[in-house]
C-alpha cells in the first residue's frame, strides 16, 4: 500500500534512510523557481521505500536558465537520469505584474521560455524532463468574468497549463507533474501558505509537499517500467450490488439510473482503464455459470466477457486463484491490483501475496472511483495504439494455447500457425512502442536499460548502432511489436547492448530467429565475434543462461553479478524456426 504521506514523519525518516534493500540507483535533478530542499529529502525517503537509492542534484534557487544554458553546468556534469522542473505560480505572478505588455504577450513569452528550456535540455542530454504545471492563483481580479478576459492572471495561467500540455504531446521526452491537479484536489484555500513563500520560497503548505513528491515518484517509477498491468476484480458487491447466486441476474443492483448506479459508474471507469491497456481479470468465489450470467445477459452490464482477459470463478481461496491468473498472464505480482469489497479477502491476499497492490475500498460503492483515483495507480509515461489491443492479444494467446493441445508435437503446432515475422531497423512509425517496451519489459530483458523515446530516436539515427525490432503475426492474430535488439559496432566485435522481448511470445522461436539474423548480419560485415552481457535484476533470472543456449561462452563476471558472453561467429549453427520473414512495409504489426 501507499506510504502515509505525512510531511513531518517523512522528514524524520530522511535523517536516517535505510538503503540496504535498494537494488538500483536513480539520479534525479531538481530545478525550480521555488525552494526544493525539503522536496529532495522527501523524495529520497519515498524512493527508498520502492527499493531505489536516489541521488539528487538540488539546483540553486531560481537558476533554471543558468543551469540549462551552460553546457558545462553542475546540472549536466551530474548526468541525471531525469530532470524535474518545478515552477511556482507565485514567481509567475510577480513576472506577470511586472510585464511591459499585455497578458497575452506575457503568455506567449512564458511558453517560449519554457519550451526553450526543454529544447536546450534535449540538445545536451537524453534525460526525460518532468515539467510541473502551475497551480491556479487564488485571486480573480474580474471575479467570474476572469475567464472572459484573456489578459487576466487567472486566464493566463489556465492557458499556460493548456499550452504546456499541448507542447508536451509533441515532445516524447517531456512528462508532466500536474501540480494544478493536486492543488485543485486539496483546495487552493488550503494549498497556498503565503507566509512560507515570503520567508522560505516554499510554493505550497508543507503538509501538502509530500503529494508533489509522490507525484514525481509515480512518474519516475513509470519511466523505470514499474506499472500496473492488471486489475483483478471481485464480482458480488464489487461490480454489482447483491449476490448473483442468490439474487439472480434480475435481482442484482446495476443500473445507469437509480438503484445500482454506483456500480454502473464503477464499471464504466474500469472499462476506460481496460481501453487504455490495463488488463482486467475476474477472481470470484462463485459457480462459473452464475458468475458469467451478468456479463452475458444483464442489459445494463457495462463490462462484457470479452473485456476480461482471465475469468476465474470457483470456491478456492483467492490468493491461489490470483497466483494462477499471474501465471496465465506472465506478469509480476507487483503489476497487479486486487479490488474486493470484503476485508477478509483483502487481508488474505495482502498476507499471502504481499507484492499485490490491495487498496482499501470504502463501504460506500459511490466512493470506489474516488478511493482508487486518489492512489494514482495507473500512472504511465507512454501510450501507444497497441495498448488498446492488449486484452485481445491475451485472448488470442489463450486461443493458441487451446489449439496447441490438438497437435501431436510442438513443431507441428508451430508450423500450423503460419507465423510471419518482420525484423527491421528502428523507424519513426514504431518509435513510441519501442520506447514503451524498454520501460515495461522486465522478465525477458538481458540488461534492463530503460531507454527513453529520445534515446531511441538517437539510436535510430546513429550509424554506430544496429537497433532492430521484430513484429509477429500468425493465422490467429497479430502480436504487434514484440522484441528489440540493439547491437553496437565495435572494432573487432558486434556487442549486443540490449535484448528484450514480450513474454507473451515465449517458446515461439522469436529469439532463435533473431539470433540467426544477428549472426548473419555480423558475418556479412566481417565480425569474428559477437558479445553480450547479462545483468541480473529481481525479475530477469529467466534469461540468465540465454546466451549459453546459443553457444556463447562466459568470459567474465562483472560487478553486481553481471556476466559477459562471447560467441565465435564461425562456430554458430542456425537454429530451426517455424516462421516466414517478411519485408518492411508488409502488414505485420499494422493493427498495432
Word description of this protein:
This protein has 592 residues and is an alpha/beta fold. The protein has 22 helices and 17 strands. The chain folds into three domains: 217 residues, Rossmann fold (3-Layer(aba) Sandwich); 145 residues, Rossmann fold, CATH 3.40.50.1000; 176 residues, Gcn5-related N-acetyltransferase (GNAT) (Aminopeptidase), CATH 3.40.630. Helix 14 links the parallel strand 7 and strand 8. It is globular, with a radius of gyration of 26 Å. The two termini are 34 Å apart.
Q: Keywords, please?
A:
alpha/beta, Rossmann fold, Aminopeptidase, 17 strands, 3 domains, 38% helix
Radius of gyration: 26 Å
Q: Which CATH class of the largest domain applies here?
A: Alpha Beta
> Could you state the CATH homologous superfamily of the largest domain?
SGNH hydrolase
The fraction of residues assigned to DSSP E strands is: 15-25%
State the domain count.
3
Which CATH architecture of the largest domain would you pick?
3-Layer(aba) Sandwich
Low confidence ranges: 587-592
Name the strands of the widest sheet in spatial order.
Answer: 15-16-14-13-12-11-10-17
Form type: globular
Backbone structural class: alpha/beta
Amino acid at each position: 500500500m501507499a506510504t502515509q504521506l505525512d510531511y513531518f514523519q517523512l522528514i524524520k525518516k530522511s535523517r536516517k534512510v535505510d538503503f540496504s534493500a535498494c537494488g538500483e540507483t536513480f539520479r534525479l535533478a531538481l530545478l525550480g523557481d521555488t525552494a526544493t530542499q525539503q522536496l529532495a529529502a522527501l523524495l529520497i525517503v519515498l524512493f527508498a521505500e520502492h527499493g531505489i537509492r536516489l541521488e539528487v542534484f538540488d539546483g540553486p534557487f531560481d537558476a533554471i536558465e543558468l543551469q540549462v544554458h551552460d553546457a558545462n553546468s553542475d546540472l549536466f556534469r551530474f548526468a541525471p537520469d531525469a530532470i524535474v522542473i518545478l515552477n511556482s505560480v507565485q514567481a509567475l505572478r510577480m513576472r506577470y505584474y511586472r510585464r511591459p505588455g499585455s497578458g497575452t504577450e506575457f503568455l506567449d513569452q512564458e511558453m517560449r521560455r519554457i519550451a526553450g528550456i526543454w529544447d536546450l535540455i534535449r540538445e545536451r542530454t537524453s534525460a526525460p524532463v518532468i515539467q510541473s504545471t502551475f497551480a491556479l492563483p487564488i485571486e480573480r481580479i474580474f471575479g467570474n468574468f476572469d475567464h472572459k478576459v484573456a489578459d487576466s492572471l487567472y486566464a493566463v495561467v489556465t492557458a499556460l497549463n493548456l499550452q504546456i500540455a499541448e507542447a508536451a504531446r509533441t515532445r516524447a521526452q517531456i512528462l508532466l507533474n500536474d501540480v494544478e491537479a493536486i492543488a485543485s484536489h486539496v483546495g487552493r484555500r488550503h494549498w497556498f501558505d503565503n507566509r512560507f513563500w515570503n520567508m522560505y520560497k516554499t510554493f505550497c503548505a508543507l503538509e501538502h509537499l509530500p503529494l508533489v513528491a509522490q507525484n514525481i515518484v509515480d512518474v519516475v517509477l513509470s519511466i523505470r517500467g514499474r506499472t500496473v498491468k492488471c486489475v483483478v476484480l471481485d464480482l458480488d458487491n464489487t461490480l454489482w450490488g447483491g449476490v448473483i447466486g442468490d439474487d439472480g441476474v434480475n435481482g442484482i443492483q446495476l443500473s445507469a439510473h437509480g438503484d445500482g448506479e454506483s456500480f454502473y459508474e464503477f464499471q464504466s471507469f474500469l472499462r476506460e482503464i481496460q481501453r487504455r491497456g490495463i488488463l482486467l481479470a475476474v477472481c470470484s468465489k462463485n459457480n462459473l455459470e452464475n458468475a458469467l450470467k451478468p456479463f452475458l445477459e444483464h442489459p445494463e452490464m457495462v463490462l462484457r466477457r470479452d473485456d476480461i482477459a482471465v475469468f476465474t470463478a470457483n470456491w478456492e481461496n483467492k490468493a491461489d486463484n490470483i497466483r494462477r491468473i499471474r501465471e496465465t498472464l506472465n506478469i509480476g505480482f507487483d503489476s497487479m491490483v486486487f479490488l474486493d469489497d470484503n476485508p477478509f479477502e483483502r487481508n488474505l491476499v495482502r498476507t499471502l501475496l504481499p507484492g499485490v497492490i490491495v487498496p482499501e475500498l470504502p463501504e460506500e460503492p459511490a466512493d470506489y472511483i474516488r478511493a482508487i483515483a486518489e492512489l494514482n495507480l495507473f500512472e504511465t509515461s507512454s501510450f501507444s495504439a497497441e495498448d488498446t489491443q492488449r486484452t485481445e492479444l491475451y485472448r488470442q494467446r489463450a486461443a493458441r494455447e487451446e489449439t496447441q493441445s490438438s497437435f501431436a508435437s510442438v513443431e507441428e503446432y508451430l508450423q500450423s500457425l503460419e507465423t510471419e515475422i518482420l525484423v527491421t531497423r528502428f523507424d519513426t512509425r514504431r518509435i513510441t512502442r519501442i520506447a514503451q517496451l524498454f520501460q515495461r519489459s522486465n522478465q525477458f530483458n538481458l540488461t534492463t536499460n530503460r531507454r527513453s523515446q529520445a534515446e531511441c530516436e538517437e539510436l535510430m539515427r546513429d550509424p554506430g548502432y544496429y537497433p532492430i525490432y521484430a513484429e509477429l503475426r500468425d493465422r490467429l492474430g497479430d502480436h504487434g511489436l514484440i522484441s528489440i535488439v540493439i547491437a553496437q559496432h565495435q572494432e573487432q566485435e558486434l556487442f549486443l547492448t540490449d535484448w528484450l522481448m514480450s513474454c507473451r511470445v515465449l517458446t515461439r522461436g522469436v529469439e532463435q530467429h533473431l539470433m540467426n539474423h544477428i549472426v548473419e548480419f555480423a558475418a556479412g560485415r566481417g565480425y569474428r565475434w559477437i558479445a553480450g552481457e547479462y545483468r541480473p535484476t529481481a525479475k530477469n533470472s529467466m534469461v540468465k543462461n540465454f546466451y549459453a543456449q546459443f553457444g556463447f561462452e562466459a568470459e567474465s563476471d562483472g560487478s553486481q553479478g553481471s556476466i559477459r558472453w562471447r560467441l565465435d561467429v564461425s562456430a554458430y549453427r542456425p537454429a530451426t524456426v517455424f516462421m516466414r520473414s517478411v519485408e518492411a512495409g508488409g502488414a505485420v504489426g499494422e493493427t498495432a
